Amino acid sequence: xxxxxxxxxxxxxxxxxxxxxxxxxxxxxxxxxDPQLRRNIGHATHSIxxxxxxxVSELTDWEELRRAxxxxxxxxxxxxxxHLERLEREVxxxxxxxxxxxxxxxxxxxxxxxxxxxxxxxxxxxxxxxxQEIGLxxxxxxxxxxxxxxxxxxxxxQLSHDQPSHILVPAIHRNRAEIREIFLHTxxxxxxxxxxxxxxxxxxxxxxxxxxxxxxxxxVSGANFGVAETGGLVVVESEGNGRMCLTLPxxxxxxxxxxKVVPTWQDLEVFLQLLPRSSTGERMNPYTSAWTGVTPxxxxxxxxxxxxxxxxxxxxxxxxxxxxxxxxxxxxxxxxCPVYERTGxxxxxxxxxxxxxxxxxxxxxxxxxxASLPYASTLxxxxxxxxxxxxxxxxLLVRLRAEHVEEHRATHRVPTAEAxxxxxxxxxxxxxxxxxxxxxxxxxxxxxxxxxxxxxVLPPPLSAWTASRNAPVPPKETFREWWGxxxxxxx
Length: 491
What we know:
- It is built from 23 helices and 14 strands.
- With 491 residues, it is α/β, with parallel strands linked by helices.
- The strands form four sheets. A six-stranded parallel sheet has the order 3-12-9-6-4-5, with helices on both faces. A four-stranded mixed sheet has the order 10-7-8-11.
- It starts with a strand and ends with a helix.
- 42% of the residues are buried.
């Protein structure tokens, strides 16, 4: 097995919720046919964008903060092995136990065994992208363990047997009326007079979850950050449900991606300013919970930290692609993305949707396992403009597209229609005479669009282009002809 930065490099295995059952174009086409979905997502993303813009504009040093976050992440990735080893030492010294998981299957086995060892069969969960990524709830259910989501949006998704569609707001594709119906049909004892007023809906969820908090003996969480110098873990949230999970149960199990470590507490000064403004449009998180190991008589008396790879070391070994691991899961790129706003998160097939998912998921699974995702973008660059740690997502998307083309070329003898078209274009443009003849021949396209002003259908393989867009009608004369008519023959 190869190593990188002292870490064994585990090849992407595509385990967990990182790829869908169908390519992005097929899934997106279905989503575009759901007007209610588009209204729900459009309204929500517009609101979050406006809030973010307002609080970001208050800071005169916002760009300096972004550059600081980028620099801290890059420096951390360069010495990740050292920081992870120190994190393990500090957690162990403070009464915790550290487990290393190569992939989703191993992480699920570790967590399941830890829960079963407590003798309990119910756990409460803090919202966690890592546990969504590995499919932990399904693994626990298969072992006879009931996992209760406590984040309001995650609860809505769980009760409706749905899938998350957003990193920050998993139920962003649902509106209040839909949530009311979900609660009426899934939560026992809900009064039929319940309206879709947010306060009433929140109160129903609060009463339902309070009993879970008071009886649960085991909790499972993720972590926004792990601090190497002290072994501390940090979770930021907006509701307080996470804090209930982190303090009341007897056993706490945290699943954290290895990229979430930061060297020092001082590094959090930067990220605790960047994250809330970029994610929820708030100046600070309503609840920032931090804990270190085990404290006798206070909080959980058994703490386990599961450090998750699941394709991360393979991504880390890529000098350019590792920038995707800088992501702090704020979701700002989703909220600004014109593609995500129209298709929603389910079309991406991965628990990480939107622009960051289009680069992160293919790297965690291997490009061929998620070949369509790097094309789920207009490359407008808005995602880079809002990213709090300046991940150049458009450049990574282009790079992944190139990797996909090269892999396809190496494994398939028959070229794609696009490759044939590009080769033909290159041959034509390599000769001035051939290019001039092609320009004149293009005027035949005027016959196809003379009535509408655009060409709606072209023959294969060009039909792939006109299947989703119109082609412009060629001009009456070519540029060469115009030049010769207005400026005289070219010399």
